[in-house]
Amino acid sequence: MALGNKRKYYMIGGKGGVGKTSCAASLAVKFANSGHPTIVISTDPAHSLSDSFSQDLSGGDPVPVEGVDSPLYALEEDLQSSTQGGGSAGIKDLMDSMGLGAMFDQLGDLKFEELMDNPPPGMDEIVAISKVMGLLESPSYSMFSRIVFDTAPTGHTLRLLSLPDFMDSSLGKMMKVRLYKHTSSASAAIKSVLGKQEKQLDTPDQLELLWGCTRKVRDLFHDPDAMEFIIVTIPTVMAVSESARLCRSLRKENVPTRRLLLNQVLPPSSSDCKFCAMKRKEQMNALNLVRNDPELSRLSLIDATLFDAEIRGVPALNFMGNSIWK
Ligand SMILES: Nc1ncnc2c1ncn2[C@@H]1O[C@H](COP(=O)(O)OP(=O)(O)OP(=O)(O)O)[C@@H](O)[C@H]1O
Q1: How far apart are CA 244 and CA 233, in angstroms?
Q2: Residues in CB range of 185: below 8 A, 6 or more apart
Q3: Which reactions does this protein catalyse (predicted)?
Q4: 22 Cα nearest atom in ligand 1
Q5: Ligand 1 atom showing the smallest separation from residue 16 Cα
Q6: Residue 51 Cα: closest atom of ligand 1
Q7: φ and ψ at 68, to 5 degrees?
Q8: In this predicted complex, what is the ipTM?
Q9: How far, in Å, from the CA of 199 to the mean position of ligand 1?
Q10: CA–CA distance, 140 with 58 (Å, rounded to integer)
Q11: Element (H, E) at 90
């Protein structure tokens, strides 16, 4: 994973509480200690990156993390501000940052803003990821060769995956409306898309640009050379079942998914107490589920042991990273 200097994105996702943040933070530390300028970003509305690094990372800007060999930054993306005002403020900010603010105002006339006031689930994550991608294209952040995302829990992630298609079809429809604008069916066509009165789009090229921006996120999610989604799970039937559903959805969406990280596996012991023996049996059952699942069994399995102490701070993350990410 550390091979090559081409920029690579890693999305760490899975059921809530399975250890995504610890795994994402330890991977980022491992990359930084392998010579990669790295940034780790949380897009989970309930951030725990600060707790994981034992450092205040709030504020919405990348914060340097000390104690690693290469530059390591961490960012807790503020999803609240991305969607404040019901979503349109975030979209406006995003489009402003892309130099498309004027177009937003024009689209606002078309009640595009209303569409954004009721964004579909997962919109905030798309905005957050697009914002980060934009930020990383700026010269001051071009140094990062590894980008690690601590994503939102599974439900959000799944919705996120279908979002670019929604945007694609909505904007695609708008572009078609533009093509039909001189025909008598224009009004009906526009109403069917926007539910409002006809207004002519006079910025078709910019609309295409916006369409391109939304596709950027989806393109990243479909590029096996630039991106990988790593599923984190724990050896319980519930977590494995949810991971199997996530894996199927990722496959369906053609998101590059090659690894399954099985976290909190009991370390070997020759003298289990009754409780540990029961737990071990339960974990073996869950592992069998993984082995027999048609999707999960195709992934390469990474074992991460259950540590006897909470993983917090760079030295602990370094220890965890060295034991997991070989
Ligand atoms: N392998 C492990 N050994 C011991 N403790 C662990 C391990 N992995 C994670 N933990 C602990 O489990 C707790 C939850 O971990 P973490 O916050 O990384 O999970 P998460 O999946 O990101 O949670 P959320 O979905 O709430 O964001 C933390 O206290 C963390 O230190």
Answers
A1: 10
A2: none
A3: ATP + H2O = ADP + phosphate + H(+)
A4: 18
A5: 25
A6: 17
A7: -125, 165
A8: 0.97
A9: 51
A10: 20
A11: helix 88-97
Residue nearest to atom 23 of ligand 1 (CA): 17
Q: Which residues contact 41 (CB under 8 A, 6 or more apart)?
A: 74, 75, 76, 77, 128, 132, 147, 148, 149, 150
DSSP single-letter state for residue 19:
S
* Region label for 253, one of left (φ > 0), alpha (ψ between -120 and 50) or beta (otherwise): alpha
pLDDT < 50 positions in the chain? 82-87, 109-111, 113-116, 179-204, 206-207, 209
Contact at 8 Å (CB) between 234 and 228?
A: no
Q: Is 132 helix (H, G, I), strand (E, B) or coil?
A: helix
CB neighbour class for 263 (10 Å; exposed up to 12, middle 13-18, buried from 19): buried
User: Which DSSP symbol is given to 264?
Assistant: E
CA nearest ligand 1 atom 8, residue: 19
pLDDT at 320: 97
Q: Which residues are catalytic?
A: 44
Ligand 1 binding pocket (C-beta < 6 A) is: 16-22, 44, 48, 153, 263-264, 304, 306-307, 310-311
pLDDT tens digits, one per residue of 285-305: 999 999 999 999 999 999 999
Residue nearest to atom 6 of ligand 1 (CA): 310
The full set of domains in the chain, from first to last, is 8-88+120-163+224-324 (3.40.50.300)
CA atoms within 13 A on the CB side of 317: 30
Whole-number Å distance between alpha carbons of 263 and 188: 54
Alpha carbons 200 and 113: distance in angstroms, whole number: 16
* Nearest Cα to Cα of residue 165 among 97, 83, 78, 252: 252
DSSP string, 238-263: HHHHHHHHHHHHHHHTT--EEEEEEE
Q: How far is the CA of 3 from the centre of ligand 1 (A)?
A: 27
CA 23 to ligand 1 center in whole angstroms: 8
